[in-house]
Amino acid sequence: MTFHCSHILREGNTVADRLTNMGLLSPSLVWHVSPPPNISPYLRMDDLGFPYLCHV
Asked: How many beta carbons lie within 10 A of that of residue 16, not counting itself?
């Protein structure tokens, strides 16, 4: 069995970063049946292969 590990910066995975931030702000465990509305646009961009460009 072979494993490959890599690191992706937060900016490289906007969906995971935003879900993580939502989880940190939540006082309890939350189960989403579908993507939250504020995540959907980033999920769609990721699905289409568009990069997310943040302004610093």
From this structure: 14
